[in-house]
Design brief:
By secondary structure, the protein is an alpha/beta fold. The protein has helices at 16-19, 26-37, 59-64, 82-87, 141-145, 168-173, and strands at 2-6, 42-46, 68-72, 93-95, 98-100, 103-105, 119-122, 153-155, 166-167. It has a single domain, classed as Purple Acid Phosphatase, chain A, domain 2, CATH 3.60.21. The radius of gyration is 15 Å and the shape is globular.
Length: 190
Amino acid sequence: MRYLLFSDSHLKHEEMRTYCMRPEGFTELIHKNMMQRLGADTSLIHLGDVGIAKPEDWVWMVRMWPGRKILVRGNHDRKKSCSWWQDEGAFDFACDGLKIRNCWLTHAPSTSLADGCQLNVHGHLHNIWDGFRPHHGREDPAYNNKTLRHPWQRLFACEYTGYAPIEFDEFIDHPAKYQATGPSKGAQNG
């Protein structure tokens, strides 16, 4: 079984084009990339914030994605229970944190590591190194700091993966390629 990561798809949330400088049609681009990279031998681990619009506008896409789908619920996903995500939301399993291969997977950066874990892989912060413009009035210091608080944190941002899921081991082995620990050299801070 191959494990692939993704986070913060925000399907049908058009304001993400402003907040994160996403391209027009990003929902369709994410769906296309999922269909191309996922297969019967894959498990997608989605680190939260799946869709924002009414579920009937985007759940059909998630149902089409091949393979097994695991959700680590994000702040926007917690309006629905884990059971809802499994029964209605097209995921095979839903939780609020997951340990896999010595990594603690969460939606937002964790303040501590789970027992036996060496890394915290999370989403939530989008492209904070360059281009992220949070909604007016957002006071969350995690968005404004533009640094990760701990050396064991790894940001998964689809804005840095071409809106495609990435093999878990590839992401862990090559964090700089996906700006998982900070901006790449030459990136402009916004």
